């Protein structure tokens, strides 16, 4: 085997490899000899088929198999001898000339091909003990618990039928048909739809125009869809709804007491409050975790500057860019609506893709050097948890992951990342900073990692 390096550009390498015809032919004959005792051909006793005859019958297919194996072995030897760590599978370019290919398969000509490699960079890890991070922590206030309980009460409030006109706070059951320029539109009709006047859960102006309506009454409600309405084909358009009230109900009193708690499956109001507080605390902990992880990734990004495999960046960018375009199309918006243009946006998202790839390589390097692993049991528990999110379809979800290695890898990857993050947070200097709920959930202009 002759190997000549033809390119050494950054993380890209290319080699010209020549595999002698004699070596390939010897391997093919060896393979045919193995087949001698396995194949059955008319006119020959088992194990007595001459190799020359086997070569006439199976020679081309065996040589193709030998060539594939020889190329794989040659590429592996190149990688091993140079100490490369591959970012992607080698890209092999075999001869394209039909006559040359035939000559190689017939064992008459040496096989000459090129192989392109994209390798992972050598990563010098920073000192993680130098990383200082603030962890925002918000305690659950009594006011938050009371606010949540009041929302629960509102959503479970009893209503009773009333005679006469609907007032603010009343619930009106309606049938309606919506039109734009006299033409009914998709999603504009409904039957038995309950509207609580004053809840601001419908299109602006819709609920207010139901004030004073009585059961059995029909009236026209004229509204305009908001400019930022989710269904872009309706955004900003004026619409008319023919609304018939079938029932008007007035809200009843709901006392936050043990009976109310029991109606929600809790033994007492105190137990319900404990459950609510625990759930809010869990939400706060999740938000805190996301913030501190963001700060850690920012610190890692600042510590590590190295070239990243361009193809990995391109693949990451393609995925991000496709999602961006799909989101804009679904919203009926353009880059100009976002205060930018396509060229600038591509540059921004390319930098995001590069950051993601670099951080992914850093986290993988840290995990490998510190023998951080995700057990099969941990992956199984995560898949079971996902399956539980689809009641009645648990078995189908489980079978999907069990039969799909890529899907299973998509479960393992975030578990691995979280383990590496936990490892780093143990080493870093993390100080807790008490903040209000508002500050914890404050949206910041952050780039997605």
Describe the 3D structure.
The strands form three sheets. Strands 6, 7, 8, 9 and 10 form a five-stranded antiparallel β-sheet that branches. The chain has a four-stranded antiparallel β-sheet with strand order 1-2-4-3. Helix 1 (21-36) packs across helix 2 (51-82), helix 8 (342-369) crosses helix 11 (405-427) and helix 9 (376-388) runs antiparallel to helix 10 (394-403). The longest helix is centred in the middle third of the chain and has 35 residues, at 269-303. The radius of gyration is 34 Å and the shape is elongated. A hairpin with a 2-residue loop joins strand 1 (2-9) and strand 2 (12-19). The protein has three domains: 2-118, Trigger factor ribosome-binding domain (Alpha-Beta Plaits, 2-Layer Sandwich), CATH 3.30.70.1050; 157-251, Roll (Chitinase A, domain 3); 268-440, Trigger factor, C-terminal domain (Trigger factor, domain 2, Orthogonal Bundle), CATH 1.10.3120.10. The protein is of the alpha+beta class and 449 residues long. It has helices spanning 21-36, 51-82, 98-105, 142-155, 258-263, 269-303, 310-331, 342-369, 376-388, 394-403, 405-427, 437-440, and strands spanning 2-9, 12-19, 91-93, 111-118, 132-137, 159-161, 171-180, 183-196, 218-224, 238-251, 429-434.
